[in-house]
Design goal:
The chain is an alpha/beta fold. It has helices at about 15-25, 30-40, 45-55, 60-75, 90-100, 115-125, 165-190, 200-210, and strands at about 1-5, 25-30, 80-85, 110-115, 125-130, 135-140, 155-160, 190-195. The longest helix is centred in the last third of the chain and has 24 residues, at about 165-190. The structure holds BIS(adenosine)-5'-pentaphosphate and magnesium ion.
Length: about 220
């Protein structure tokens, strides 16, 4: 099953994808996490991506398409959540072409819809694990048990450099100009499932499970 999770910066894509990984063992491919990892390792791709990430603009399509499609081929996983990709119509079209060539297609596109004021509030309080960027917290809404420390692996938490107010504004402008058309692209194809992302994390999770056709009965048993 290939799921494309869409929504604005701070909508909760990474948070919900983490739960799908934990609960169903799905593979989470976040273009942002992959690019930040390249940047951390100082690779050529990371150096190129740095100037775009740090200003809140998009890394060029050809670079991101090559990175994600390459990673998908390498992992060859059957259950994948794409998060942060595609972010332009050109990326969405490239993904369709690549999947069709493999006889695959997107199952569903959950759209976590959140208003700009809420996004600003959430991103301002986001804390990310240094060791694993998929471990996410929020000072206000989802704090770690010990301030500044990841509950899962004990690493330090940090504030992403693109979570500063001026960068958030550019990211939101970029999202509305370049990524909203992707949402329409999937709506026209009948794949979009809109979720009210203004709700708390548990309620968004419940609605996400419904959107992807999983029910509480299909949750793996935690007993025994
Ligand atoms: P990326 O890393 O993809 O960032 P983003 O799309 O801006 O999304 P975020 O990670 O900020 O938000 P999220 O929806 O994952 O929210 P989260 O779960 O963390 O991209 C970064 C950069 O990389 C881009 O700007 C670009 O430069 C480049 N890039 C990446 N992909 C690209 C592509 N395809 N093409 C070109 N360039 C690309 O939650 C946010 C906070 O809210 C957390 O603190 C969380 O705890 C909290 N929270 C979550 N849900 C709730 C809730 N329901 N209630 C209260 N708090 C909540
Ligand atoms: Mg994210």
């Amino acid at each position: 099953m290939i799921i494309v999770l869409v929504g604005a910066p701070g909508a909760g894509k990474g948070t919900q994808a983490g739960r799908l990984v934990e609960t169903y063992g799905m593979v989470h491919l976040s273009s942002g996490d992959l690019l930040r990892d390249e940047r951390k390792r100082g690779t050529d791709l990371g150096k190129l991506a740095d100037s775009f990430i740090s200003t809140g603009t998009l890394v060029p399509d050809d670079v991101v398409i090559k990175m994600i499609l390459g990673k998908m081929r390498e992992l060859n996983a059957s259950d994948v959540i794409l998060d942060g990709f595609p972010r332009t119509v050109a990326q969405a079209e490239a993904l369709d072409v690549a999947l069709a060539a493999e006889g695959q297609k997107i199952a569903v596109v959950p759209y976590i819809k959140v208003e700009p004021a809420t996004l600003l509030d959430r991103l301002g309080g986001r804390l990310t694990c240094r060791a694993d960027g998929s471990h996410l917290y929020n000072a206000k809404y989802n704090p770690p048990a010990v301030a500044g420390i990841c509950d899962i692996d004990g690493s330090l938490l940090y504030q992403r450099d693109d979570d500063m107010p001026d960068k958030i504004k550019t990211r939101l402008d970029t999202y509305f100009a370049q990524t909203m058309p992707v949402i329409e692209y999937y709506r026209v194809k009948g794949l979009l499932r809109e979720i009210n992302g203004e709700q708390d994390i548990e309620q968004v999770w419940a609605d996400l499970l419904t959107a992807i056709g999983k029910t509480s009965e299909s949750l793996p048993s935690l007993v025994g």
